[in-house]
């Protein structure tokens, strides 16, 4: 099995090391990941400037390819220009911190997997839910198991799995839960500061508002020490509103001013 | 009606001028838009560096506020820190070029509207489908009409409308079509070049593959000179796969290595 690995924390992060070590036991791994941290870049791609690719060594051996772009860039570049043959699977992670609920929208980790899904490759995004990241080894082990499941069951074209693993010791994990994207989100605050030259600048901060209270939502499952597995796609159509809007009769809008 | 206007082409672009001129006839418009072009940044937000806000004048009068960040940053900043009262509606555009099918995923224009939807404000993204942009005036007129429709009918929290307007004379527009996000997408190619110092670099290019052949898909509707109106949300859950995955029995995955 040929596996392309990427992430958004960058090729020098710890999480990608553990993911690569785990997946090397079950497949032929190619790493193409951002040279610099790309958290919260969402599904950005680089078009206005060209990209560079460099070989990155770890422990004196070729570890993978670093790209001075976004996670989505890395997946495109890995599949189109770096891998001699297309991958059987693309895995993104292990992210340092959770990617649940509304955070999925901003996540570079999920966007790397989503780019693979757009390109018709099965894909998995894996995140460890705390920035302390004490349990990368266990998360890597779970990555192998979920890859097995995807291999065994297949995944519809255009779909990826978004996995969040609680960062707790194995004995505290209550199980694996099939979940939906939660509704929890950030209540943003911009903190105003004054720079040494007397000019204002603003830092994004805020509080995460827990709006999920049901184990079938990723955020609540993870909070209760379940591993969450959410199938995600890139069809953003709101079909419920589509049905409602049939009654709007927008075809009757007069086009003349 | 208080309207927040943003875009991804930047506060100095032509499209936003036409949008503001049109919407000023029906509401109180505040402009908060990127200082620099932000096409294809997707739903990126700025967290690692602070943001600056500057007043931007046009024709000797305050036009709006320029932010050195992404479209999503601008919407957050506009609502949280710039507008004295929250908007009744957020409108993003008029984009120079179409945002149909898979392009929605990469679009800064759509992401600005989506950020508003995440924050529970009704939102509209408006794009003119050619980079020649000969018909901004007509597109601005349509913006007013669709704002009327949203005001009249209401929009479910978390939903935005993604509008694409063919860049042709009014007499060639065939009508307004309620649509779904199409499946058309880019077949990417990275063009390899050598810089003056002998080093390789790569430009993203490619061909847009038309996979839609039904007027209920945005891309095909627009290609056939219909204005497309697609309801979009940010719940990325793939419910079809969710149902299928109930048979995977992932709760039985053994967690010990």
Enumerate how many helices of chain A there are, as a single number: 7
Helical content class of chain A:
25-40%
CATH topology of chain A: Stationary-phase Survival Protein Sure Homolog, Chain: A
Class computed from helices, strands and strand pairing of chain A: alpha/beta
**How many DSSP-defined strands of chain A?**
11
Q: Largest beta sheet of chain A: what is the strand line-up?
A: 3-4-2-1-5-6-7-11-8
Rounded average pLDDT of chain A: 96
Low-confidence stretches of chain A: none
What is the first-to-last residue Cα distance of chain A?
A: 59 Å
Q: Label the CATH architecture of chain A.
A: 3-Layer(aba) Sandwich
Oligomeric description of these chains = homodimer
- Name the helix and strand elements of chain A from N-terminus to C-terminus, one letter apiece: EHEEEHEHHEHEEEEHEH
Q: Outline the biggest β-sheet of chain A.
A: 9 strands, mixed
Q: Tell me the β content of chain A.
A: 25-35%
CATH superfamily of chain A: Survival protein SurE-like phosphatase/nucleotidase
